Amino acid sequence: MAREALRAFVAMVVLTVLFGFGYPMVVTGVSQVIFPGKADGSLIKRDGKVVGSALIGQQFYENVIGANGKVEMSKGSPVTQPDPKYFQTRPSGTDPADNAEYTEFADYGPNSTVTLAALQGNITTYLCMNSSVPYTTCDSKGFSASDTLYDPHITKASQIPVDGVDTSASGIDPDISVANAKIQAYRVAAVRHLSLATVDRFVAKYTTARSLGFLGEPGVDVLELNLALDAIGNGGR
Length: 237
Prior knowledge:
The chain is of the alpha+beta class. The protein is built from seven helices and nine strands. The chain has a three-stranded antiparallel beta sheet. A two-stranded antiparallel ribbon has the order 1-2. Strands 3-6 form a two-stranded antiparallel ribbon. The termini are far apart.
């Protein structure tokens, strides 16, 4: 019995060293040589600083400035709102938004009041972002079709692409649909004082094709697109 216990112990040590240390080190080493960027998380850098990941969505928000000219605060944190000069990613299903530490999706049914409330809130946000009235004013009073619109074709929920109001399965999707980007291009062009044709060219440049030519749908890389627009500044043609 002692001999069998010794064999089991030796097997445990050998397998632990082999698969607990050796295998991970080999896989890590090979991946660092063959595709180091992907192995490190597909990080995107500008001027040597990490600004995000190609795999994880992020919020492009700005602080809300109150009537006193100061940043509004709530429970010790700044109040934020979507920054109109940036393309916005699809709604996130994680808490906080686009939390890379874990991904999740809601298990509420399609008839759930929680699902309905979330979708209605996202619809209001999307329509308000298409309105040139102050976002906080629009969000509080609700969207009105009489408001001045960036894209005049978008006036009701049925005209909004699904990814504009619903979360992805992971909750951290970094891309948006081409249809979603085309709508937002009107706002971004107006706020940045760019021609719509210029912004549309950038959208096309940062649109990725279907995987293997037939899987999924084309998607627009929001982070890379926003970074490219920042690089040319306002008023570029």
